Structure prediction request, 59 residues.
Amino acid sequence: MNKNTIWTILGVILAVVIAWWIVSALLSVLWFVVKLALVAAVALAVYVGLRAAFRNADD
Prediction:
């Protein structure tokens, strides 16, 4: 094995490690956004339900 082959192998390993880290970070951010959207949807449904319940209680 010559010097170029070793550097190529190290470069490939480094590229895979960096790609793994980037994909992991992006998936974490994406999961946070999805979770935030779900929380907002449930909060909106609860708000509408409570508003309707209190409106009917006043009648």
User: Anything to note?
Assistant: The CA atoms of residues 35 and 46 lie 16 Å apart. The chain is about 95% helix and 0% strand. The mean pLDDT is 93. Residues 3-58 form the longest helix (56 residues).
